[in-house]
Amino acid sequence: MSRTHVPAGLCLTLLLLAGCQSASELIYEPKASDPLDGYEGSLAQAGINTEMDWGPKQNLLLSEFKTLKETHARLEKRLEQVLAENQNLKNNLQSEGSSLAQEKALRAQAEAETELLRQRRRDLEARILSLSIEKAKLEQLNLLAKIDNLRRSLEPATTGAAEAAAPPPGNR
Questions:
Q1: Is 37 left (phi over 0), alpha (psi -120 to 50) or beta?
Q2: Which candidate in 34, 63, 104, 154 could, as Cys together with 30 as Cys, close a disulfide (CB 3.0–4.6 Å)?
Q3: Which domain, by its residues, includes 119?
Q4: Does residue 102 lie in a domain region?
């Protein structure tokens, strides 16, 4: 090999090495910052954020991002509604619980008053019964006293009638 072949071989090797590096960049997809992104021309066809500006993949990502943002906003609204509804239900449950506790307290008080009234009724019935017994005893004593008075008033009449009905002692 001659000396002129070495620099040529070296240049060829460097050229091949540089060619491999630039060919390797062609294998990868274009970056998002690339202005053309595989399309001819770089001007937008209609306004901003079109496929011409962003490229098909970036436009797809942008529309998906917008869709996701809208979905996220709807879900946040729904979450707020559900949380408000949940809070209302908790408040209703709490108020119903307190009204239930009040009702139980009133029911217990009413049952205690009812039991007190029943006890008073039993006491009054017992008193009426004892007074009825006392009345019956007094009526019995009254009747016995009348019977005694009648016997006493009939005794002189009975003794006088028995003497009148008896034969005279001398006729015998």
A1: left
A2: 34
A3: 50-125
A4: yes
66 in a structural domain: yes
15 within 8 A of 8, measured Cβ to Cβ: no
Identify the burial level of 65 via C-beta atoms within 10 angstroms of its C-beta, where 0-12 means exposed, 13-18 middle and 19 or more buried. Answer: exposed
Assess if residue 159 is contained within a domain. Answer: no
How many structural domains are present in the chain? 1
Q: Residues 54, 45: contact at Cβ < 8 Å?
A: no
Judged by average pLDDT, the poorest of 26-30, 108-112, 157-161 is: 26-30
* Among 76, 45, 74, 48, residue whose Cα is nearest residue 62: 48
* CB-CB contact of 37 with 58 (8 Å): yes
Report the share of the chain in percent with pLDDT over 70.
60
- List pLDDT tens digits, range 48-99: 555 555 555 566 777 888 999 999 999 999 999 999 999 999 999 999 999 9
Q: Please, is 30 exposed, middle or buried when counting C-beta atoms within 10 Å of its C-beta (0-12, 13-18, 19+)?
A: middle
How far is 32 from 54, CA to CA, in rounded Å? 7
Q: Is residue 56 part of a domain?
A: yes
Please tell me the total number of residues recorded for the chain in this structure: 172
